[in-house]
Amino acid sequence: MISELNTLSPRASEEVLSFIRFLKSKRQKAVPDTALASEPVLRKDWLLPEEDEAWDDL
After folding, report:
1. pTM higher than 0.85, yes or no?
2. Interatomic CA distance for residues 17 and 40, integer angstroms
3. How far apart are CA 54 and CA 18, in angstroms?
4. Which residues contact 5 (CB under 8 A, 6 or more apart)?
5. Quick check: 5 and 13 in contact, CB under 8 A?
6. Angstrom distances, CA of residue 21 to CA of 29, 35, 55, 56
7. Given CB 3.0 to 4.6 Å as the disulfide criterion, which of 1, 3, 8, 35 pairs with 12?
8. pLDDT of 18-50, one tens digit each?
């Protein structure tokens, strides 16, 4: 991969770098989206009296 990058023009190298940054930001964004999507599913468990009892001693 590095040898391929070394053959690119400066303009093409900038495009590759921009795409890498895009992929990284997309991956970082995916984690919070997953957490937000799971919240409604977990909410029903969080509201149970048993959950309150489990957390009372902490």
Report:
1. no
2. 37
3. 47
4. 13, 16
5. yes
6. 12, 22, 41, 44
7. 8
8. 999 999 988 777 667 777 778 887 888 778 888
- pLDDT tens across 1-22, in order? 899 999 999 999 999 999 999 9
User: Sign of the C-alpha dihedral, residues 31, 33, 39, 40?
Assistant: negative
Can you give the residue ranges of every domain in the chain? 2-55
Which tokens hold the place of 17?
A: 């770098």
Collect all residues with Cβ–Cβ distance below 8 Å to 45 and sequence separation of at least 6: 51
Determine how many CB atoms are found less than 10 A away from the CB of residue 16: 13
